[in-house]
Specification:
The protein is an all-beta fold and 134 residues long. The chain has strands spanning 10-14, 19-25, 29-32, 35-41, 45-48, 53-65, 68-81, 86-93, 96-98, 103-105, 108-110. It has one domain (10-113).
Length: 134
């Protein structure tokens, strides 16, 4: 987890035995080891720990799942399911990593980063092939 440098320090933490029902917004990184129900919105990183349960519409930059996530996930950069992680959700992301021992049930829509979605500007030139006319 966080192999390609996290965005920043931990903004918040929901510990085991705690439950939040509502809408969560944060800047950099938030870790869930309790239960979160509702909606999550951030350009940062959501970490769902081994004891964490998220039942929500999640829209984040990156998500790392070692616990359980239900609902929907839109990760603009990356979604990673680690060993023991369980996702029962539709996922939309340009990068999906599912480690051996993780579980995924749902649909996945892979989206290319915006820089790769542009049509090529170079023209294709047909080279003559042996047997072609003059």
């Amino acid at each position: 987890m966080f192999k390609d440098n996290p965005r920043g320090d931990l903004n918040g933490f929901l510990d085991a035995g705690s439950h939040i029902n509502g809408e969560l917004h944060f800047d950099d990184t938030f870790r869930v080891d309790g239960k979160l129900t509702g909606k999550v919105v951030s350009e940062g990183d959501l970490v769902v720990g081994e004891q964490g349960e998220v039942d929500a519409k999640v829209k984040v930059g990156r998500i790392f799942v070692s616990g359980v996530v239900r609902g929907s996930i839109e990760a603009s950069k990356r979604a990673e399911l680690t060993v023991g992680g369980k996702v029962y959700a539709d996922v939309s992301t340009p990068t999906l990593v599912i480690e051996e021992g993780a579980f995924f049930e749902g649909n996945c829509q892979m989206q290319a980063p915006t820089s790769q979605m542009q049509a090529p500007t170079s023209k294709v030139r047909r080279l003559p092939v042996s047997g072609d006319g003059p």
